Amino acid sequence: MDGIERVLDEIEGHLAARKAAIKLALHNYPAPITGCDAQYNHLAEARQDIARDLHRLEALRRQALSGEALAAFAASSHLDDTVKQDLAARARRLRSSRPGPSS
Fold first, then answer.
1. I need a surface site. Which of 56, 69, 72, 76 has the fewest CB within 10 A?
2. Which residue, among 48, 55, 98, 47, has the nearest Cα to 73 in the 3D structure?
3. pLDDT tens per residue, the chain (103 residues)?
4. Distances (CA, A) of 66 to 3, 45, 63, 73, 95
5. 3-state helix/strand/coil string of 31-92
């Protein structure tokens, strides 16, 4: 498995863990008053954001990937800031270690 695929798998793991945590938080949340519960609404919005990120990640897997594409995804994703910083650093290393186009 090449470096980018490994990183994509890790991103997917982080997103899946966040999705599961949000799902559990929503499941355990007391019944909200529609439109009046900011925390519940925030959790529901975060769940949608993570679902969109997972769909974008799947689309990335079908493309010819580069460190640049990986860095752009990480920057615009709903991952934790620490994870984003780690991914940005790894994407830079992947870009610098990638051989140039073959002739």
1. 76
2. 55
3. 467 788 888 889 999 999 999 999 988 888 766 667 788 888 889 999 999 999 998 888 887 677 788 878 888 888 888 888 888 888 778 766 655 554 3
4. 10, 29, 9, 11, 7
5. CCCCCCCHHHHHHHHHHHHHHHHHHHHHHHHCCCCCHHHHHHHHHHCCCCHHHHHHHHHHHH
What is the SS3 assignment for 17?
helix
Q: Which of 65, 92, 86 is nearest to 14 (CA)?
A: 86
- 77 within some domain: yes
102 belongs to a structural domain:
no
Q: Output the six-digit token pair for 55.
A: 């769909």
Q: What is the extent of the structural domain holding 42?
A: 3-96
